[in-house]
Amino acid sequence: MNILLDLFLTFARIGLFTFGGGYAMIAMIENSCVEGKKWISHDEMMNITVIAESTPGPIAINCATFTGYKRAGFPGALAATLGLIVPSFAVIYLIALFLDNFLELTLLANALRGIRIAVGILILDAAATMIRKMKRKALPRGIMLCSCAAMLLINIFAWNFSTISLMLLSAAVSLAAFAVQGAPEGKGGDGR
Hints:
Elements: H1 2-17, H2 22-36, H3 42-54, H4 59-98, H5 106-133, H6 138-157, H7 163-181
Helix pairs in contact: 1-2, 1-4, 2-4, 2-5, 3-4, 6-7
């Protein structure tokens, strides 16, 4: 029961003090769950992030659910997910309840503009951390650089190309390379 409370409180703190959505929360999730609590390894966090991005739903909720499940099964997944959702829900509910013209307040509107900058920095920090810790192999780095360049060109020229299509194309290239090269050493089915 202690681990469930710990999961709930850890993710409640992340949910309460993070602005900007799931990508901004990744840095805090990694800081709390990988470096602080050591519930998961960095490689597991990278895998969880990729899976969470690929599955339906908000990335932070998916990360919380996977981390909670890894730590304590279904009850852990439920505790972590609720921990992440409840603070945000409570804050939005209170804002909706008491402040009809919340965004019309000049002080709050200016504060939210400043928070946008901090959110961008948090997202860049999470990306830089993942890139630094990524295994130094040519194919993953090549796919990452080509995907970033493609997204930049898509945004600059306003091309009608879905990010999901880009993700599927990257996955297809990676799977094709895996099929040609075979399984990495030590990961085969021979028990090594």
